[in-house]
Structures are given as structure tokens and as C-alpha cells.
Task: structure prediction
Amino acid sequence: MKPTTRPTAWPRKLAHAGLISVALLFLIVFLLLPLATVFYEALQQGLMAYVHAMAQPEALDSMRLTLLVAAIAVPLNLVFGVAAAWAMARFDFPGKSILGAFIDLPFSVSPVISGLLYVLLFGAHGWFGPWLDKHNIDIIFAVPGLVLATVFVTLPFVARELIPLMQAQGTEEEEAARVLGANGWQMFFRVTLPNIRWALLYGVLLCNARAMGEFGAVSVVSGHILGLTTTMPLEVEVLYNEYDYVGAFAVASLLAMLALLTLALKAVLEWRYGDQIASHNTARH
Amino acid sequence: MKRRLLPGFGLSLGYTIIYLSLIVLLPLAALLAKASSIGWDALTHLLGSGRTLAALKLSFGGALVAALVNAAIGLLVAWVLVRYRFPGRRLLDALIDLPFALPTAVAGIALTAIYAPNGWLGRWLEPLGIHVAYTPLGVLVAMIFVGFPFVVRTLQPVLEALENDVEEAAMSLGATRAQTFFRVILPMLVPALLTGFALALARAVGEYGSVIFIAGNIPKQSEIAPLLIVQKLEQFDYAGAAALSVVMLTFSLLLLIAVSRLQRWSQRWTESRR
Result:
């Protein structure tokens, strides 16, 4: 964070201005233009058409389903992230680095393959397909499949934020609590949790954004049963393929607003609590 | 091993292992089992077909080009954001992560609308003979979009930590600004640059949502490998879908190993220079 303070000759200033302009141009064309397009297309036929498109029963159903899937998947990965971080950052055990690699693995799996995994496990021709069929349990082409695929793709977020932070924080405070007589859960809720709360919130924020926005993985397991297994990103695709552009971009605009809200909260957390969110300062995203 | 003062080792590790086994390991085992059931003839038929090869070539080749573009632009953007002060800098800095936060389907239809023949940019590019939407170029644009934040975000902390005295020493010894940049600064950025490049590459190879809308998905021309997996699945060719997935996963895992090696290397690199 060191601004160049030396007096600069004008050719250098010109070079700076040139570099800044090229960077700005790229950011405007590649980032801002797509964002602006979403809102422009959604409002192209006026505010009434926009509101009308969002009030369609299918659109409302997709919003409800997206909220439901995120409401199940995010808490599951929150608990997992805390447990995994506690094991990884507080203890040494054989195979630790392999465990870490498996926690990171879902990030390097194509979304389509993430969905395929569960089709091969629970689909009609999958390992558990015949058994599930006999007991009338629907997983693929139903809500549980959407939740599983979402859990898979968002699994690393919370753990990834917490592990480096807890490693950096060390164990002194927790050990002091134990020595002073706190039991395990008292120590966890009064010492550990307050110490990691901002990083936890940061991880949950990123996890939630991905859970609500995931497309490829849920697309494979959904089977597109209208109103039943169509989440918001899938509804965008359905409307788009029906040439209902206002409808598609209206639903998309809600997701874009969610993305902007996520970025804003993320920036606030980094700005206000940057020192308590380890990953902000490292090379991970 | 020292005596454990902290509780919860068994509980937390047990839960982590059971959860990972159910969510990650068991499904992966199902994938490997299905892929290995394909048989030699079907596998050679699948991987030897022109359509599969074209799709793999587009996914890997496109991702490689996109990652190279992102390395160059990412270096420039990270440099500008860290070194220069201008109005709106913090806002832009926050916007860098937009491709991570914006759902891929939303990015996909927005990019298509921009580059379609009647779109904001498409209507200027089409008369010049540059067709972006529904061509491999469109695939490339989407891949650049989704991979963009990686290089910027891996470079920023390294650039911020870069000591000014090294540069000043080089300059005071008579190096020009260009020499200082290429001989002194750039070598120090190489590990982070490579890490960001590999992450952007891995992301673009498997990308689906943002690509399929703008690609037009013409077989052998603008059809990506993940889409081919979906199509195999829709034709109930589970073994084919699984085999293709294993091919892609193997590549991703090799990249993952490369990234972790690079991160270890860059840690040692920066520490040795302190």
C-alpha cells in the first residue's frame, strides 16, 4: 500500500494514465457491461412487465425452492466447516494433508460432474437406485438431489476460511479456558466461536452465494420438473429457452442483486474485520 | 505426540470423515466404478470420435487461451489497483469478484445478449467480421469472464508486500523503469502469477453455465466437454458420461497438485527474500 510519492515527470504520468485507462476499459467491458445488461434487459419493456414477470407462479416457486435448498445446504456445510477446521487446525494426525485435499476437492470438479456423481449413486440406474425405487424414495429429479448437489459444490467454503485463521490464532486462549475449568462446549461457545465469528460469517456468505446461484450441478440432477425442481438459475434457463427474455432477465436480476449484496457485505467484512478474516490476506479466494 | 489438552478430537475428526465419505468419497467411488465398466472398445470409440476430441480440444484449448489472457490482464489490473490511486478504485476492487458472485447462468445470458448480432457490442463487431456469440470465440469470452478474479486475487497480496527498496536499489543502480519491471519485479511475481493462471485454467476447463448460452453448442465447433457429458447422460449412456468425467477429473487433479506445489514454492520464495 505505498503510493508513489516521488515527483513524477509528465511522460510517466501519461504512462500511468494509459495503464489505468486500459485496466478500466477491460473492467467496464468485461464486468460492468454484463451486470448492466441484466438490469437493462429486465426493464426493457417497462417496470410493469418486470414486476409482472417476477410475480409469475413459476418464478415465485423457483425463489421458494432456491431459498429452501440454501437453507438446508448452508447450515450443513457450516457445521461441517467448523468440525473440519477444529480437527485440522487443532490436532496433528496421520493423513491430515490428504484430508485437506479432499476438503478442497469439490472446487476442482466441474459442476456437471458434481451432479453426475449423485445421478450415478441415486439415479434409476445408480447404485442405490433399485432400493430407493422399491421404497418409493425420490432423490434424483427431486429436492434431496438438488440439496446434495448443492452441498457438494459448496462444501469447501466455510472450512477453507476457518482452517488458516484458526491455525494462525493458535491454541493459547482455548487451553487457558480448559485450565480454568471450562468444559468442551463452554470453551467452544465462549472462546472459539467469538474468535472465529467474522471468518465464519465470511465463509457462510460465500457459501450461500454459490448455493443460491449454482447452475450446472443442480441442472444435471433436477430433470426440470416445473415448479418442483426448478431453482432460480434453472428458471432463468427455462424462460430464456422459451424466448421470454424479460422473464429470464427479471429472475436473473434478482440473482444479480444477490451477487451485488454479497460483494458489498464481503467488502464491509474485509474492510472492518480484515485482520480477523485470515484468507483475506492470503492467496486463496 | 504431546498430551491433548483440547477436547473434541474424536468427535470433530469422526464427523469430518463421515461427512466427507458420504458427500465426496462414496459418489466418487460410484463414478470410478461406472467409468471402469465401460469396456475397452466403447472407451476407444468414445475417445476416438471426432466429436469428443473436438469438445475436449475446445474445453482444454479454450481454457488455456483464456487463462493466458487472464494472466496478462490480471497482472495489469492488479498492478493498477495496488500501485495507483484514482477515484473509484475501492469500488472496482470490490467488483473484481463479480464473476465469483454472479451465478453462471446469469453471466451466460448477459454475455450472450451483449455479443449477439444485435447486442451492445455484437452490432459493432459483426460488421467487422468478428462473430462472437455462437462461435468458439464466445466460449473464450465466457471462460475469460469466469476465470478473471483468480490472477488478480493471487497477485494483489504479493504486490502489496513487495518492498519498494528493491526497486529503488535497481533504479539507483541505473536500471530503467522497464528493466526494473522485467528483471526485478516480474521474477518476484512469477509464482503467484502461475498459481492464478492454474486456478483460472482449472475453473475454465470445467465451466458449464456461463458457456452453454453463448456457445451455440454446434457439434465439433462450439461444443464443450461438460455439455457432452450432459448429453451422454440424457441418452442414458452413463458409462460414457462417467468415462469422460474421469478424463476431465484426472486433468483437474493434476492441476490441483500443481497449484499446491506452486503455493508451497511461492511461500518459500517469498520467505527466502525477506
In short: Chain B touches chain A through 101 residues (CB under 8 Å). The two ends of chain B are 32 Å apart (CA to CA). Chain B has a mean pLDDT of 89. Chain B is about 80% helix and 0% strand.
